[in-house]
Structures are given as C-alpha cells and as structure tokens.
What we know:
The protein has helices at 3-22, 26-42, 44-60, 65-71, 75-90, 128-140, 154-170, 187-192, 208-217, 240-252, 268-284, 293-298, 330-340, 353-362, and strands spanning 98-103, 109-116, 119-124, 144-148, 178-180, 201-205, 230-234, 261-267, 288-291, 305-307, 321-327, 345-349, 367-370, 389-391, 399-401, 407-414. It is of the alpha/beta class. The strands form 4 sheets. The chain has a 7-stranded parallel beta sheet with strand order 10-9-11-8-7-12-13, with helices on both faces. It has a 4-stranded parallel beta sheet with strand order 5-4-3-6, with helices on both faces. The protein has a 3-stranded antiparallel beta sheet with strand order 1-2-16, with no helix packed on it. Helix 2 crosses helix 7 (154-170), helix 3 (44-60) runs antiparallel to helix 7 (154-170) and helix 10 (240-252) crosses helix 11. The longest helix has 20 residues, at 3-22.
Amino acid sequence: xxxxxxxxxxxxxxxxxxxxxxxxxxxxxxxxxxxxxxxxxxxxxxxxxxxxxxxxxxxxxxxxxxxxxxxxxxxxxxxxxxxxxxxxxxxxxxxxxxxxxxxxxxxxxxxxxxxxxxxxxxxxxxxxxxxxxxxxxxxxxxxxxxxxxxxxxxxxxxxxxxxxxxxxxxxxxxxxxxxxxxxxxxxxxxxxxxxxxxxxxxxxxxxxxxxxxxxxxxxxxxxxxxxxxxxxxxxxxxxxxxxxxxxxxxxxxxxxxxxxxxxxxxxxxxxxxxxxxxxxxxxxxxxxxxxxxxxxxxxxxxxxxxxxxxxxxxxxxxxxxxxxxxxxxxxxxxxxxxxxxxxxxxxxxxxxxxxxxxxxxxxxxxxxxxxxxxxxxxxxxxxxxxxxxxxxxxxxxxxxxxxxxxxxxxxxxxxxxxxxx
Length: 421
C-alpha cells in the first residue's frame, strides 16, 4: 500500500464529508446516533467476539495489565457506549447557535455563531470505546473524523466502524463522515498529523510516548494531555468516612485511567487518624505505598511499603502503586500540587467551606473537585454524553472535551444598510 496516497485519499474524502456534515440538520444527526446505538446493542455478542480476538493477541504479545484493562470490552462497556450515544442525541445541538449579540453605535449588530471545527483526526491506543465516543461527538457537532485506532484493537474497531457507517447511511449522512484508517502501518500516523490541508485538529488518546511523538511531529493543532498525575488532598477539616471512601475509590476503582489518583496528600492534623484505615483498604488490593518519612512512620508494619523518592511525586503509575506524603496543611498541599501536578485533576476532602473554595481557586488544574473522587473527571460523568479526550492545555478547550470543545466561533454581523464612515 502507498501509505501517503491512501491517507491523502482519506483526507480528501473527510474534507468533502465535513462540508455535508456542517449543514446537516439536527434530526438527521440524532437519527444516526440512535441507529448506531441500536446496532451496538443488537451486535453485542459479535462485538465481544471481535474484542476477544484482540485480547488473545494482546495477551500473547505481553501487553501490560493497564493496557489490557483499556482494551477489554465488557457487557457494561458496550451498554455504556450505546447509552452515551443516546445521551449525545438528547443534548442540544450547538451548531448554528448565535450568542453575545450587541448593538454597536454604528447601528450594526455583532455576535458569534458556533460552527464545527471541520475534520478531526483521532489517534488512540487500546480503547475500542473511543471509536464510538469520538464518532458520536463528531457526528452531533457536525464534524467529519478520521479514526486511527491501535493495531491491538483492530478487529473490534472494524466491527464498530461498520455499525457507525450503517447508522450514517440510515440517516442519509455521508459514510465518509467517520473513517477508520484500515492500515496498522505506523507511517499512517505520520501522514495524518502532517495534513493541515485536510485535518483541522488532532486528538491523541494514548500513552505518553505516543503523545510526545505527536507533539514533536504534528503540523496540525492538538487537543491533548500528556500525563494524568492526579492528587487527593485530605485536609485537616475532612470527614474521615468521606476521606476513606474517596481515597480508596480514586486509586483503586481503576488503575489504568488518566483520572486515577497517583499521589495522596494528608494534612498532619489527621494523618494518624486517616492513613491506617486507608492502608488497610489498599492492602486488600495489594497496592504498593511509596511513603515519605512521616507517612512511613505512621504506617510502620503495614504491608507493601516503600520509601518515596523525588521521582515518585511526578510519576503516573497506571498501576497499583501510590505515593503518599504528609503535609503541614493547605499551603504545602497546594504548593506540592502546583509543582508536581500535570494540571489534569486534583481533589480536596474537607468540611471547611473557605478552604474548599481556596483550593478551587488556587489549584491550577483542568478539573478541581471538592469531596469527590478524581475518577469523576470524565465527559460521561460530567453530563457531556461522552468525551473525545481530556485537555490540560489552556487554549480552546480544557478538561473533558465534549460537543462544545469540538466547535469554534465565528463573528456574524447584522446590518441595515450601514456603511463605514
């Protein structure tokens, strides 16, 4: 296969489809989403079978547990994909919305209209659910998309892509609005990220190595985050029961996600009260605890302890490993987070309203939570229907990126025959 020519053809078809999608009405887009959701439920056994082929190959290749977890497609995951599409269909269509209309002294009215970005290239690893989430969000926001999933999920992604195309055709929308890159050749990624004439935005969903490569080589703007070094700070004013529940869930609900807690900070005033209970919960999951000196003294005798190093404070483990530090209080906690955080998601557990509000103001992350697990930092949980990714950048989109993050604004002007003097 001539990869360059193949990707050029994909890009050209996507650009043509993007123009049709930009003018598609809401009813047609919602119809496509509903049809895809129904097809996913109908074909659940076939999707599980395709996924099992991918899982067998991944296990044979020695894929690490965190990536195997992302690759697996359970009955619950399939149901969630379909439900996510239906939630997207139920959301208001942002395209064409006009806001901020103001009269100018000249008599003209100036406002802004929300419009699609155009063509969105999505590059992802070991996450077949991204195929559906991305397709759904791009369809509803009037964009075309080029999906380049990892070779490890090729069978499942192809099965899902066929269902997406079925839904598009049933709604009278162009099949090329959602295209799966059929080749697993890595050269296809290099072409996709250097085609600004066809692709408007790249969204990477994968490991640090992939994203670092794209940051070096891409000629197309990206919506991305590099790391998910997330913190939970248990304040001196915390409710202990909440602290135990949140501290356990944030780490142990799933290890391989970007919103999993990697560092636990505990105020000295409650450390001796909170840490032993958490250590018992973590021991049940065989979580390795990498502790600073003070935390290690409190937890002496508990299993799976190790001394924390400087490197631990800036490590995304994606594994049953947790760094723990005892801090003097709010000042030290915020300083530590703003020094080591990847600006993804950070949480405080406290019953003190003033300290909670200060934490919200001063922690410079895309999602900041009070008395809730970091695992909630997700487009589905935030009511976006689904997410195309999470951005910890500060331009265009920040945090979970849903429909609005896949649009832009253009100025619109209404006049009555005015001319500039």
